[in-house]
Specification:
The complex is a heterodimer of chains A (about 230) and B (about 240). By secondary structure, chain A is of the alpha/beta class. Chain A contains 8 helices and 7 strands; from the N terminus they run βαβαβαβαβααβααβ. Chain A is about 45% helix and about 15% strand. Chain B has one domain: NAD(P)-binding Rossmann-like Domain (Rossmann fold), CATH 3.40.50. The chains are: A alpha/beta (about 230), B alpha/beta (about 240).
């Protein structure tokens, strides 16, 4: 068994479901002590039952960051995975309130968690992985607010890679990974956009995160794991 | 997994030798390619029970790849690491760029990468091609213009090959920053220190870290057409 992260503590936001859960499982599998945060207590408990002895903290990152960090005593690895797309519309059908909600969910939550984690990460010379998206690199029809929020998270990653050193900061940009109930037409469309001809698995994204955590010279990198959907920087 | 075969071009020293060692430690059977440095390549291969295989990637790519398949039975991963830059090519004087320099560097870094990839694509059932490019391909560099031209070519080739060879073969490249290999010796100590200070992590990279990246790219089936920058945060591009 991989024990390379033994003695390290990791926090995965949005860690109870989908990609976040796979990341938590991969870090746990590499020997890390893992804390997951999520909005829904039931899915947190379900994730813990599946993964093993991990610490679950119910938290909505738009208001509970302080509360969350009462449960964090030390930290080597922060994975800002929480986020999501709650609205799906064209620019003309995306009012400012939706933009603000998207940025709160996908950018400001990562900003606040990073700020709270920083004293721990500086002490441990740890690392941060921000889960962005292929659409943050090259936008297509996922709604302008979501694409722009993920692009902002990528830019923030590059910015922080210089300012927070020696804490390393990298982004992982997944392509289409089916985690909820997408429906067959949406899955076919997403798969067709890839070179691989298929959507990805949460484990393939988690493997990328694990690499970003472990490789000590990777910093400010934007790691695409998207079946070849986006090939530009 | 345990019988998979990896061919590392330019494997006799530096990044290539480190990549070979990392793959061998992960259970791959490894072919260490060399052009001239036979003793070095054999010494690298000997540490993990691999084989050293001779060949100039710009000229003998087909024979090289076929030879590996003949010796080891298959090919799963090709790492196009061979490069021909030298100290003379590390210059900002345009008048010092000769046709000989141009041909030599592009022959190995660019034509060699293409020919090895094409030969590998013929014999691989499924597999991975991992190319080596460099920060100057992305940002430009005052010194080493021919090098930056060759490596920019590798960048474009990677993406095109990823499209042509999908979904059978994943093709990616590693854009390397300042790694502790032979070229570091060309730097005067003061310049070397100022280079390191400009890197957020405060140091040059280790060849083993290049090996880690190559191994990751060899083992993830959904990463293709990508450029992974490994530079300690130097460029943030």
């Amino acid at each position: 068994m991989d024990n390379s992260l033994s003695g390290k503590t990791a926090l995965v936001t949005g860690g109870s479901r989908g990609i976040g859960k796979a990341i938590a499982r991969a870090l746990y599998g590499a020997g890390a002590r893992v804390i997951i945060a999520g909005r829904d207590p039931k899915s947190l408990i379900r994730a813990a039952k599946e993964i093993g002895e991990i610490i679950c903290v119910p938290a909505d990152l738009r208001k509970d960051v302080k509360k969350l960090f009462r449960y964090v005593d030390r930290l080597d690895i922060l994975v800002n995975n929480a986020g999501g797309m709650e609205h799906f519309g064209t620019f003309e059908k995306t009012p400012l309130a939706v933009w603000k909600r998207s940025f709160e969910l996908n950018l400001y939550s990562a900003v606040e968690v990073t700020r709270a984690a920083l004293p721990h990460l500086r002490k441990s010379r740890g690392s941060i992985v921000n889960i962005a998206s292929d659409v943050g690199r090259r936008p297509f029809d996922m709604g302008p607010d979501y694409c722009a929020a993920k692009a902002a998270l990528i830019n923030l990653t590059r910015y922080l890679a210089a300012e927070l050193a020696p804490v390393r900061v990298n982004a992982v940009c997944p392509g289409p990974v089916v985690t909820g109930d997408w429906g067959a037409p949406a899955i076919r469309k997403a798969a067709a956009r890839t070179l691989a001809g298929r959507t990805g698995t949460p484990e393939e994204v988690a493997q990328t995160v694990l690499f970003a955590v472990k490789c000590g010279y990777l910093n400010g990198a934007v790691c695409g794991v998207d079946g070849g959907t986006v090939r530009t920087p | 997994m345990k019988d998979k075969v990896a061919l590392i071009t330019g494997g006799s020293r530096g990044n290539g030798a480190a990549i070979a060692r990392v793959f061998a430690a992960a259970g791959y059977r490894v072919a260490v390619n060399y052009r001239k440095s036979r003793a070095d390549a054999e010494a690298v291969a000997k540490t993990f029970g691999g084989v050293a295989v001779k060949g100039d990637v710009g000229k003998d790519a087909d024979q090289l790849v076929d030879g590996v398949v003949r010796k080891l039975g298959r090919l799963d991963v090709l790492v196009n690491n061979a490069g021909a830059s030298d100290r003379a090519a590390w210059t900002d004087d345009l008048e010092a760029v000769t046709d000989e320099m141009w041909d030599r560097i592009l022959d190995t870094d660019l034509r060699g990468t293409f020919r090895c990839s094409r030969a590998a694509a013929r014999v691989m059932k499924k597999g991975k091609i991992i190319n080596v490019t460099s920060i100057p391909a992305l940002t430009g560099e005052r010194e080493g213009i021919v090098y930056s031209i060759a490596k920019a070519g590798v960048l474009g080739m990677t993406k095109s090959l990823a499209m042509i060879l999908a979904p059978r073969i994943q093709v990616n490249c590693m854009a390397l920053g300042s790694i502790e290999t032979g070229w570091v010796e060309w730097l005067p100590p003061a310049l070397r220190a100022s280079y390191a200070a400009a890197i957020p992590v405060g140091r040059f990279g280790r060849p083993e870290e290049v090996g880690e990246l190559a191994l990751f790219l060899a083992e993830n089936d959904w990463v293709t057409g990508q450029t992974y920058v490994l530079d300690g945060g130097e460029t943030r591009v």
